[in-house]
Amino acid sequence: MTAAALAGGVAGALLNGLFQFSYWMSYRREKLHYEPVRDILLILLDHTGGAVQATPLIEALMRRFPRARLTAMVSPHAIEVLDLSPWVDDVIIHDASWLNPEFSLGHRLKDCWTTAGFFRDKPFDLAVNPRDRDPLDALLLSLIPARFKAGFDVGGGGFALTHKVRGGEGLSRVDKNLLLARALGAPVLKPRLFLRVGMEDEKITSAFLEDKGLDPERDLIVAMHPGAGVAARQWGQ
Question: What share of the chain is helix, strand, coil (3-state, %, to 5)?
Answer without folding.
Answer: 45, 15, 45
